[in-house]
Amino acid sequence: MSLAVCLLIDDPADAAIRQLWRRLEEVGVPSLATHTHGRHVPHLTLAALRTYRVPAVQRALAELPVAEPAVLHLDALGAFRRSRCWLAPAASGALVSRQEATVAAALGTGAELHRHYRPGVWVPHLTLAPRLHTADLPTVARVVYDVLPLTAQVTRAALIETATGDQHPLDHLV
């Protein structure tokens, strides 16, 4: 599958998003909680690498300056045309710069970047339901807008193998 460079969030925000996943499941909308291997964590992906060498990516990201913890302001629901729905954080300049630096570091290892994560194309998002049917969008909106807005503190970063959910924590926040 791929290797995702992910920002992970504080415990209260993580719990709130997991609760959203549970509420979606209760109304019959499959969420990230039960998707594939079931080991998903609430996250924001900065880069998805189609080909990679984990040690090389870890070294490259370790060379980036330590980023300050960031706050994600989540106040919108989004959906991609291929059925994935998500929470949209405000895209601050700092977040966009962080994504660009992460991509540059990863590409410097010879990794191949998924096309949706190219700087200028990337849409920051925290996935709720990866296979949403259009007919379920009003149901999802009702559940989500009962909870929003949310604030999430970015507290750590990790490389996550998307096929297995295996995590490789990064030494510092990228």
Quickly describe the structure.
With 174 residues, this protein is of the alpha+beta class. The chain has helices at 11-26, 54-62, 93-107, 137-145; strands spanning 3-9, 43-51, 71-79, 85-89, 112-113, 126-129, 150-161, 167-169.
| Overall 3D shape | globular
Poorly predicted tracts of residues: none
**Beginning-to-end CA distance, first to last residue:** 22 Å
Global structural class: alpha+beta
The number of helical runs is 4
Chain-averaged pLDDT: 95
Summarize the biggest pleated sheet: 8 strands, antiparallel
Broad CATH class: Alpha Beta
Number of DSSP strand runs:
8
In helices, the fraction of residues equals 25-40%
Rg over alpha carbons: 16 Å
Question: What string gives the helices and strands in order?
Answer: EHEHEEHEEHEE
The number of domains is 1
3D architecture notes:
With 174 residues, the chain is an alpha+beta fold. It has a single domain, classed as Cyclic phosphodiesterase (Cyclic Phosphodiesterase, Chain: A, Alpha-Beta Complex). Strands 1, 2, 3, 4, 5, 6, 7 and 8 form an eight-stranded antiparallel β-sheet that branches. It is globular.
Which helices and strands occur, and which strands form pairs?
Elements: E1 3-9, H1 11-26, E2 43-51, H2 54-62, E3 71-79, E4 85-89, H3 93-107, E5 112-113, E6 126-129, H4 137-145, E7 150-161, E8 167-169
Antiparallel strand pairs: 1-2, 1-7, 2-5, 3-4, 3-7, 4-6, 7-8
